[in-house]
Amino acid sequence: MVSRVCSCSLVDLIPSSETEIGNPNLIAGRGSCMSSALAASSVVSTAQLSPRIRPAVDRVEASKIAEVAMGHLDRPGLIPLWFGESDLTTPDFINQAATEALARGETFYTHKRGIPELRDTLAGDMSGLYGRTSSSDRVSVTSSGMSAIMITFQILVDAGEEVIIISPVWPNAALVVETLGGTPKFVTLDRRQDGGFSFDVEKVRAAIGPKTRAIFVASPGNPTGWTMSSQEQQQLLDVARETGVWIVSDEVYARMVYDRKAAPSFLEIVEEDDPVIVVNSFSKSWAMTGWRLGWLTHPPMIDPAFDKLVEYNTSGAPTFLQYAGVTAIKEGEPFVASMLERCRKGRDLVIPALQSMGRVQVANPDASFYAFFHVNGAGDTLELARSLVEKSNVGLAPGNAFGPGGDGYLRLCFASSEETLSEAMDRLRPHLS
Ligand SMILES: Cc1ncc(COP(=O)(O)O)c(C=O)c1O
User: Fold this and answer.
1) For residue 392, what is the domain's CATH number?
2) Within this chain, do residues 305 and 419 fall inside the same structural domain, yes or no?
3) For every one of its 433 residues, what pLDDT tens digit does the chain have, with 9 covering 90 and above?
4) I want to staple 215 with a disulfide (CB 3.0 to 4.6 A). Which of 25, 61, 112, 164 is the partner?
5) Does residue 399's CB lie within 6 angstroms of at least one atom of ligand 1?
6) Ligand 1 pocket, residue 289 CB under 6 Å
């Protein structure tokens, strides 16, 4: 069609299917060679674009846990201990609060930073836990811990900038940085003699360069269960204050800790304007993984950016779920305690059983619901995890899914019943001894 407009135009060179990507009607309406040539050049540049995915997104690897699990989720008799969630459903009193909110008609758009009742409740709860007043002005509700991390890095990180990630760690934060065109720079925890992990703030300080925007640390950690001490948090905070680099502290396992009510938190030591953003979630301690509800605690300077970006991510967490969140916090302490007790039993069953298997080295985690264990001579645990599904019908996550420092390890989530875990240990023993 375009080539009929003017015989001297460039458009003859363009395959007809591509010229149709330009605007042939516009071109057809013009009579002169000049305008046709101009129109043609716009067609050329349009035609040069072909549909594509952003390379930064294209490069992001698929989850290695999913790689192991894919095709095996429906195996008869499988014991799936590869994902990070308990086998308990959300307790009824929380479900009921959501149902009542629905029945009341809480189905409309609401405050982007969360309903005031939930922000007040969270602030009150954190003030009680950490012995310092947390103001609801500093709390923003999100649609999951994951979404909280996405919005946080959208606020902090530009393409070409770096985020230091303390690893081994749940991989999503690093992958978010990559999707934004940034670069994760891993600083590994040191492996202790007993199979546990320890942190060296000087390694973090040494890794900070001119492009570093943030340090991401998950404590209590997934997959390691490693928990940062208050002293280590203070050291890292000093580094952040000195350098202006943000700390993004992922504390979604804050209440999943075995020797005290809550793990040490940056919220115990930060001043209001410190460059620290704390990520939290309802998923783990309240058995609410499928609800996708979380929250951030952050300094005032984040407010305008959060308001903008939450609008373009989710426009706020679902209204009726937020009312259930209020109930979870206000009435959920007995459930949080019972979940912890169940996980303690799981840990006390799984850790000695693993330690009795000849090839395994593992320390007792102080927190979280994972056994992250080293298998001597395993090498690539992606292959080992695959073969364990085939041979033992137990689903485990490979250590190299968790970044540098994870090679040679497997992760097992022990937030299941004692019968299930006992059966899993029996099935794994012949392959790990
Ligand atoms: C360390 C860590 N942070 C954040 C999350 C995300 O939690 P949510 O379910 O709220 O997205 C997880 C989930 O496994 C996690 O392990």
Assistant:
1) 3.90.1150.10
2) no
3) 333 333 333 333 333 333 233 333 333 333 344 444 444 445 556 667 788 999 989 988 888 999 999 888 889 999 999 999 999 999 999 999 999 999 999 999 999 999 999 999 999 999 999 999 889 999 999 999 999 999 999 999 999 999 999 999 999 999 999 999 999 999 999 999 888 999 999 999 999 999 999 999 999 999 999 999 999 999 999 999 999 999 999 999 999 999 999 999 999 999 999 999 999 999 999 999 999 999 999 999 999 999 999 999 999 999 999 999 999 999 999 999 999 999 999 999 999 999 999 999 999 999 999 999 999 998 889 999 999 999 999 999 999 999 999 999 999 999 999 999 999 999 999 999 9
4) 164
5) no
6) yes
Same domain (yes/no): 211, 294: yes
The answer to the question of residue 411 being in a domain is yes
Containing structural domain, residue 200: 109-328
Tokens found for residue 366: 């102080």
Q: Which residue's CA is the nearest one to ligand 1's atom 8?
A: 145
Q: How far is the CA of 262 from the centre of ligand 1 (A)?
A: 17
Q: Quick one: 144 and 228 in the same domain?
A: yes
Q: Are 135 and 266 part of one and the same domain? A: yes
Answer whether 169 contacts ligand 1 (Cβ < 6 A).
Answer: no
Residue 214 is assigned to a structural domain of this protein = yes
**Pocket flag, ligand 1, residue 166 (CB < 6 Å):** no
Is 94 a domain residue? no
Residue nearest to atom 13 of ligand 1 (CA): 84
- For ligand 1, pick from 172, 226, 282 the residue to mutate: most ligand atoms within 8 Å of CB: 172
Instruction: Report the alpha-carbon distance of residue 262 to residue 258 in Å, rounded.
Output: 9
pTM listed for this prediction: 0.88
- When divided into structural domains, the chain yields a total of 3
Q: Do 319 and 338 belong together in one domain?
A: no
